[in-house]
Each structure stands twice: as structure tokens, then as C-alpha cells.
Task: structure prediction
Amino acid sequence: MQVDEATVKRIARLARIRITDDEAKGLEAELTSIMAWVEQLDEVDTDGVEPMTRVVPIKLRMRDDIVTDGGIADDVTRNAPLSDDHFYVVPKVVE
Amino acid sequence: MTASAATEPRRKSASLISGATGDWEVVIGLEVHAQVNSRAKLFSGASTEFGSAPNSNVSLVDAAMPGMLPVINRECVAQAVRTGLGLKAGINLVSVFDRKNYFYPDLPQGYQISQYKQPIVGEGEVEIDVDGDVIRVGIERLHLEQDAGKSIHDQSPEHSFVDLNRSGVALMEIVSRPDLRSAREAQAYVTKLRTILRYLGTCDGDMEKGNLRADVNVSVRKPGAPFGTRCEIKNVNSIRFIGQAVETEARRQIAIIEDGGRIDQETRLFDPQKGETRSMRSKEEAHDYRYFPDPDLLPLELEQSWVDELAKGLPELPDAKRARFMDAYGLSPYDAAVLVAERESADYFEAVVAGGKAGPVDGKLAANWVINELFGRLNKEGLEIGKSPVSAGQIGAIVGLITSGTISGKIAKDLFEIVWAEGGDPVTIVETRGMKQVTDTGALEKAVDDIIAKNPDKVEQVKAKPTMLGWFVGQVMKASGGKANPQAVNDILKAKLGI
Result:
């Protein structure tokens, strides 16, 4: 699969990564070769094969409905660049 | 879903909107987000309590700190299964959690954990009743997902404030088929869905707190034509607004099409103040959610035996309860529907029927008293049934006193007022305050004789015009202070007047 420049820019935008036009050109080639490498998997016939979701036979663990956490607003907001009264404060995002 | 509208019989509630080029039909499907009733969040042990101090119900998982792993809350899964069963839907014993990727400050993970291709609940159905037509609304699916946090925009001109207390609380997204054809049908559907959820105890349905909210998909078409392009109106948070949003959006689309324009599929916002919907263009690009299975979570596998156990524990649901009320107590469809709309009302009614100390009372009379006297009074005072100063036992006792002929219907209303204001046992009040109906024939005959003696002119009139009898009954009732048994008075009068 050929990854073109527009696709690179769109992926970057969706991932919120700023890239220059020069970088986009480089990434075009890199991503295309990564895709080509992954595409080797297409050679395997997987018809009727369940997707593998685990390598060891374990099941999803569940918790009981008990409140065991919280009350740590200081810790939660400690790394925030800006906070006020335990709120995270971010640049205005109103529509 | 095929557009088979041409062959469907039209139903009364499927209103058409007339435009310049003729009639238009509105097609509506809803995605309802219902907050799961649980103590802790879907994937963390933080509390779901509403109205707590900012970021106090947040664990390091909810704040998406590096290395934190989600562990699913069994009760949230049980609630989704119960809801699925209540919607007569298939339960998928294997379902998968996916990541829905987008950026927003109140979504610290950068993705919402949701279910995309394999939801926990499959196809079901909700029956609604509009203008006497029973409409079956298809449910496409129900899936579990995380709620986002809350952004507050009015605290500062340059900044938004983010509170993650709601972040990670479990939501059920319930997706309907596009089976609704008017604002009223959409409202009836959400109302019914809310009732079912409240009966099941899986969501409290509190729309003011945002615990139940709907994304409304609206399109228009000429009757019988294929579906038009739809627009999605996000986050409508009251039944009234759902109706308004549908009407407003349908008219906007009709105007565009009739002007020769084309509807763009997009996300819109309903503004109740301005009474308009407007585009949320900025959301468009984010629509590439790049779903993929969440590598932190194994597939959710359920045992059929566990599902069966949950099914056994389900309460009687509104449709079944309504049918039983009509069958067992002879209630009208309307009265039965009013009583089952809230589980509390239905329970209260059945407690009334159980009666006071004297035993069970007549269901129809009990329904009249609960709906007309009690609900009327509660509405007037702005009280909920749980806060009623008159207990079901007390109403049961009053109804019992009427049925046994101990008091008249009129005195019963006075008695209700006394019990409302002062409380007490209705039977004792009737005894101590001399409210018993007079059925003593001797005393009634004397009262009748007095009235006849005093009104010879009326006696002449009644012989020519028997409907005048009512006047005599009224006079005797008045003389007895409302305590005479009207039927007994009627009988004595007829005998004495020879009519």
C-alpha cells in the first residue's frame, strides 16, 4: 500500500503531531515500507480462524462493585500545568 | 433496514409535515446514553456519586496515568445484561471492548473504551403506545462504554475547567432502529425506555443530571420514498427538547430540500433558547475514530447460567404489570398505564388494594382514589409519591369504608383531607368524629318526612316530573350533614312519594 503525503498529514493531524512538509515526505516512504512489511501477513490464509486475543488461557478478571479508590484530587492534579481548586485548567475549548 | 413504508399502514401518531411541495414524513432513530446504576466506575474503584468536589472521585486509572490498567466492574456488566433482557434482546456471551480514539480535554486517555463490532447486547424491542396504536420500536444493539469528564466553560474567559469525576462512569448506549415517525413517537419511546430502565433499576433516568440523554437522528422523505440523508442532533437532555429538536430539524431539512438544496450528513446541536439546530463542524474531522480492540482488555465472556440467574431476578416490567392490572383489577387501559408509569406508583396502588385492617378492597375504586384524589393532591403540592403524607394503608382503609357503606363518597373526601393534614387511622377518625353514614332507616325516614312536609309544592312537581327527585335527595343529604346514605334516601323517597 502506497501511503501518500495527504494520508501522512491526515494521520499526523489525527494524532496531534505537528510535522513539516519535509518531514511528511520522509514519512511517506517510511510508512509505505512499514505497510509493505505488514502486508506480508496477507499471504497467510486466515479464513475461519478466530482472532487470537491471548497467549495464555486466562479470562477477563472482574472486580466487585465496591468503591476502593478516589479522594486523591491532589495527586491527580499534581502534574497538571495549570489547576485551580482541583480542576484541571486548559485553554478554552468551547465550540 | 429496507424502506417498506409504502406498504405499511399509516398510524395516527406518524404525523406528516406539509411543505410547499406536499407532505413529508420524518424518520427518527435514537441513540440513548443511560448511566449505569453502580457504586463504582466501569473500570476503576472510584465512586460514581454525583455532585462531589472536583476530581475527588478520580482514580489514577480514570486520570489515565501511565501504566494504569482497567479492571471491569462485574455489576456494570450485570446491569447491561439485565437491561438487554428487559428489552427482550439477545445477550452476546462474547463481546469485545474497543478503543474509540479522539482528542478532547475531558478525555484524558485520548480514547473512550467502548464496544464497536461486538456489543454485549444484540437486537431487541420496545413497545410504545401512542394514540391507541401499539408501535414496536426495534432495538439494534446496546453496548457498554465509558463516560467522559465534564468541561466548564464559564469560569474564565481564556480557560476551560475540567472535572474528571464522571470520567469512566459506565454508560449503556442503546441504539434504536429508525422506526419512529414523529416527535411524539420519539418522546413516547424515550419515556418508555426510561420507565423500563427505572423498573429494572439499571439507570435512574435522571435527565436533569444528564444520567439519560439522547442523540437524535433525523431525516425526512416523501412518504414511501427511500430514507433521506440524516443529521445527528447530539446530547438532547429532556423529553420536551427531544420533541422540539425533531420538529425544528425536520422543518430545516424540508426547507433546504424544497429550495433545491441537499442535506449534508453532519452532527448538530439543538439550542432550546433559540429554538434552532446548528452545525458542529469542528466535530466532523474527529469522526475518524480509528477503532481497534483494546489490548488492555480480554474479550468479555459470560456464562449462560449467570445470564439465566439474572433473568430470574428481573422484576415484573411495565407491559406485564399493566396487563395484569387490567386483568386482575378490571382497570381501564388508561388507568393501568398511569399507575405503571412509575414503579413506585404501581407498588403504592397494590398496597392500597391490599387494604387496611379490614382486608382487600375493590381495585377500580382504589385506582380512582390513587389517580384522582392522591395524584391530584400530590401534583398540586409538588410532591412525589414517596413523600405522600397519606400512606397506602390509609387510602386502603378509606376505600374500604366506602365499599362497606360506612361512609359516603363525599364524606370520604373530607376524611382524606383530615388524614392528609393530621394523619391517623381512618377507621378511628370516622368513629370518633361521627362521620358514619346514616343508614338507620328510622332517622332517615324522619328527615324525609320533614322535607316532604315543608315542601308541598315540590311534592306536586315531582309527581309530574320524577327527575325532581334529585332535589329531595339533596335536601335530605344537606339536613344530615352529608352523612345520609344516598341510596337509602333515594329508596325511602321513592316509596314515600309513590314514584
Observations:
- Residues 441-497 of chain B form a domain with the Arc Repressor Mutant, subunit A fold (CATH 1.10.10.410).
- Chain B has three domains: 16-310, 318-432, 441-497.
- The longest helix of chain B spans residues 239-258.
- The radius of gyration of chain B is 30 Å.
